[in-house]
């Protein structure tokens, strides 16, 4: 995921500051309720 974001926003194929010691977690947040006005 981080490599895709780096490609989209930085124009590089691999995120340049990734180290093997890092653990990256992706959370998918689903809304329970949406309130709008206007």
TrEMBL record:
It comes from the Bacteria. This is Uncharacterized protein. The lineage of its organism: Bacteria, Pseudomonadati, Thermomicrobiota, Thermomicrobia, Thermomicrobiales.
